[in-house]
Write a structure and sequence with these properties.
GO terms for molecular function: alpha-1,6-mannosyltransferase activity. It holds the Pfam family Gly_transf_sug. The chain has 525 residues and is α+β, with helices and mostly antiparallel strands. Helices cover 42% and strands 8% of the residues.
Length: 525
């Protein structure tokens, strides 16, 4: 039943049979949206005449005083009923257009404006969203049934049956025992993207909407640094937090030997925090070890990388839990890990944590190594951000300006990533990728303690808190619908899970919770 056409208290799908002096009440046919009109049919021995109406001799006489009292009672009940529906309407307005009430602002308009209240997430509108992919064979079977008169369509539940089943309609349970504040305590709120002027020049032919899809976070570098330090100190064990803060200072703040305790310490910090291959470990993860002997995995384990001194390790799901417990026990990040509702969310999060804490290369088990890691990132002179102004030391900039190659001056990059998608002018890009320019996250390499990987984990922490808020709002919406006897709408909303894409009623979707959307935003930031 469409939420836009369903009305509270409707009896269009209900059969009423009331025996009153053998008179049978049946709902008359009426148009959608109108109130039911009851037809009265005489029964045997009834005091009702089929054409002339009820016979007065069989009806009790009511005095004037009693008729007045009865009329006042009816009016009073009507007023109380209107007041009750008015109070309920205030609750329902919070649900947005989940009930299809006219005059209620569309939640999609609020979402576009960035002001969506996650306390209550409305029911997904199938008229405005693309449906999930389905098996074509099911369509064929459906067509056969539609053309076969011998196949009976499933009977629609009666009103009484729907009411009986309301008790079994329950929201998805993930997140209902959690609080977003437990993940975000001590962290500053995530800032909204700066407003975009309507007459601003888009960065591409895709327009301003595509420009605004990137979740920027703090725009000012100083705010970004403080946000990252704050997160490192609050969310990680103390020993790891110290290394993360040191990495932030090295990569994002001015670099002098004094900061690291003299030239020798500075050289050591350079090895630890700057070179992406300073930790020669190749990380792979999988549910179990069944693919450990595949040709793709062997190319990383026994091929060119091994010849260059790279150590290979594959973490199964069990191994991952052991590693998390060993490295992050008692931390905020451990709590996030323990409460992620899906294996794919954990897989994404684990790769960022591995390169953040341990460093090295992460790659999926279905990839194959083609070039030795030693040549990654070499072959062309890098294009320096802002030509090095504001982040290179005076000595480094002088050497590059005098003609030395940037690689010879700066050494190897701290992070190596690839571009997975550059959609150009494809207007349907959002059907395939979360970002118009998307960074690969199925293979990546990083120095340990690098701010990019740390920022990705920070975004996952905020996204998990947002999903918890959504879960509570979804449960509240379902309760309101159940209280009003809205079986169809409550059932539809209960079928939406926390992993659904926003176009299907969910809070984030995997892509923007832990996947390529998160990694792309962290890299481009």
């Amino acid at each position: 039943m469409s939420a836009s056409t369903s009305t509270s208290g409707s009896t269009s799908d209900t059969e009423h049979e009331i025996d009153l002096e053998k008179a049978i009440f049946k709902p008359a046919q009426y148009s959608s949206g109108s109130q039911p009109a009851y037809l009265l049919e005489p029964g045997p021995g009834s005091g009702f005449n089929a054409h002339a109406g009820p016979s007065r001799r069989n009806l009790p006489h009511l005095g004037l005083r009693r008729r007045r009292l009865l009329g006042q009672t009816v009016v009073g009940l009507a007023v109380l009923s209107m007041l009750g529906w008015w109070l309920v309407g205030d609750q329902l307005a919070e649900v947005g257009d989940v009930l299809g009430y006219s005059g209620v602002p569309s939640w999609r308009d609020e979402l576009t404006a960035g002001d969506l209240d996650l306390d209550l997430i409305p029911l997904p509108d199938d008229r405005l969203s693309e449906q999930p992919a389905h098996d074509v064979s099911n369509d064929l079977a459906f067509d056969d049934e539609a053309n076969n008169p011998d196949v009976e369509s499933p009977a629609e539940l009666s009103h009484a049956e729907k009411m009986a089943q309301l008790a079994s309609v329950q929201p998805q349970q993930w997140g209902l025992s959690l609080s977003s504040s437990s993940f975000l305590a001590g962290l500053r709120p995530w800032p909204a993207n700066p407003p975009v002027e309507e007459d601003a020049q888009p960065l591409s032919s895709l327009g301003l909407k595509a420009d605004g899809v990137y979740n920027l976070g703090p725009v000012a570098l100083g705010d970004y640094i403080q946000q990252m330090k704050e997160f490192a100190e609050v969310a990680f064990p103390a020993t790891i937090a110290q290394k993360l803060v040191k990495g932030i200072e090295y990569h994002l703040e001015s670099k002098t030997a004094d900061q690291f305790g003299g030239k020798e310490a500075a050289d050591s910090a350079d090895v630890q925090h700057r070179q992406w291959d300073s930790k020669k470990t190749i990380w792979q993860t999988d549910k179990d070890s069944r693919h450990a002997g595949s040709a793709e995995v062997q190319s990383w384990k026994d091929g060119k990388a091994r010849d260059e001194g790279w150590y290979w390790d594959l973490l199964t799901d069990h191994d991952a839990d052991v590693w998390i417990k060993k490295r992050l026990s008692g931390s905020r990040i451990k709590d996030v890990w323990d409460n992620l509702p899906s294996g794919i969310l954990r897989s994404d999060t684990l790769r960022y944590l591995l390169v953040l804490i341990e460093g090295g290369i992460y790659t999926d088990t279905d990839t194959q190594l083609l070039k030795s890691p030693s040549v990654w990132g070499w072959g062309t002179d890098p294009k320096l951000y802002k030509d090095g102004i504001g982040w290179l030391t005076d000595e480094e900039k002088k050497r590059i300006d005098e003609g030395e190659k940037a690689d010879d001056v700066l050494g190897k990059a701290s992070v190596v990533v690839g571009i997975e998608a550059d959609v150009g002018d494809r207007e349907d890009w959002n059907d395939w990728w979360p970002r118009p320019i998307q960074i690969v996250q199925w293979t990546l390499a990083s120095a340990p303690s690098h701010p990019i990987a740390l920022n990705a984990v920070l975004r996952i922490t905020h996204a998990t808190a947002d999903a918890v808020d959504w879960a509570h709002g979804n449960a509240k919406s379902i309760k309101i619908l159940k209280d009003q006897g809205r079986y169809d709408d409550a059932k539809r909303l209960a079928e939406v899970t926390v992993l659904n894409e926003p176009s299907h009623g969910g809070p984030l979707g995997v892509m923007d919770w832990t996947g390529p959307g998160v990694w792309t935003d962290a890299v481009l930031r």
